[in-house]
Amino acid sequence: MARFFVTNQQDKSPKLDKLGKAIREASLKYREPEADKQGSTPYAGLGMAYRICIEMLAGVLVGCVLGYYLDLWLDTKPILFMVCFFLGILGSGLNIYRMATNGNNDPKNLKTLSEKESDHLNDNK
Amino acid sequence: MSAGEKHSPLEQFKIQYYTDFPEVFGMNINFSNASLFMILATVCISLFMISGMRHRALVPGRLQNMVELTYEFIAGTMRDIVGESGRQYFPFIFSLFMFILFCNLLGMLPYSFTVTSHIAVTFALAIVVFVGVTIIGFIKHGTHFLSLFLPKGTPVLLAPLLVAIELFAYLVRPVSLSLRLAANMLAGHTMLKVFAGFVIALGALGIFPLAFMVILTGFEIFVSMLQAYVFTILTCVYLNDALNLH
Predict the structure, then answer these.
(1) Distance of CA B23 to the CA centre of its chain
(2) Chain B closest-CA separation from residue A122 CA (Å)
(3) Quick check: pTM over 0.90?
(4) Cα–Cα distance between B230 and B81 in angstroms, integer?
(5) Chain B residues closer than 8 Å to A87 by CB
């Protein structure tokens, strides 16, 4: 009966070392940066709505201010202002798009239609 | 009660100076109510942290538990978003969070002044974060940091336009960061003042605006904490963008 509880230290320590190393490597891998888990509280939608409104406003503001001062500096009166205005809107639109897709899909995984088809081509084999 | 005296709900945001020094190199160095409340926030944070950790018990008591909770909250958030490479920036992020949180919450006390409702204060914080994160990115990656503006796999024809759009999206960040905090605080406190005016103006019916003010005060406390959290989260996200380049 006692045989089951006797541990032979010389046999076990390489296994324990390997186990320790595996645990350490796994814990390092676990600490990768993940997407922020902000969408869990019931007011999360309201928070995101505030953020989107402010992003839209800030985009227009940055575009107009930058465009106006660049125009003043380079003497290209209305052109740069209009260009920067639209770039500001598009820039804030990009930020809003990133905010909207960050919780659900990874935008890096967005594939073209042909890639999606070739993914499913081998499904029934 | 003086007749015809109209109190604007925006009067609470007026800066009042308590001293009268002359200008130094064109800068106004008088002590204002904003300075007073910023110092008060710093003193409150220091008292909270220092007196909480005074006993250094292995099994924490109530105050030490609260201090450890806030520490672990920010540390856990940073670990999730930035990972191991951002650990050295924890003191800054923690100070930022606690300062904004305490400034927002101190503004909820009656007769106090909300420091973060002024764009000057929030823009100063946001521009420090923005410039700091950009400098960190350039120090760590050199000119490769500019690859942040060109996502992988874009067709060559679209590349200049996309770089311009990404650049603008990057420049919008400090403005949106500062504007969000200031606008939320400004709107919240203005609403509180307006409904408080209704309570007096309606006389006996003023019980309804008063009940609404109770709910609104609770909501404002929630918004104060949420806005501090959102500012900190976005700072961590921008730091992660600079450190790990997506």
Answers:
(1) 29
(2) 25
(3) no
(4) 13
(5) 164-165, 168
Angle between helices B90-106 and B62-81 (to 10 degrees): 120
Average pLDDT over residues B109-124: 94
Which tops the pLDDT comparison, B184 or A47? Answer: B184
- Candidates A69, A61, A70, A53; CA nearest to A88 is A61
Q: Which residues of A touch B164 (CB under 8 A)?
A: 87
- Cβ neighbourhood burial of B57 (10 Å; 0-12, 13-18, 19+): exposed
More confident residue, B240 or A112: B240
Coil/strand/helix, residue B107:
coil
Read off the amino acid at residue A113: L
CA A119 to chain centre: 23
Longest Cα separation, chain B:
72
Residue with tokens 């204002």: B32
CA distance B37 to A19: 54
Distance in angstroms (rounded) separating the CA atoms of residues B110 and B26: 34
- pLDDT band, residue A109 (cuts 50/70/90): very low
CA B224 to each of CA A118, B50, B85, B191, B228: distance values in angstroms, whole numbers, following the listed order: 49, 23, 29, 14, 6
Chain A neighbors of B183, CB-CB under 8 A: 54
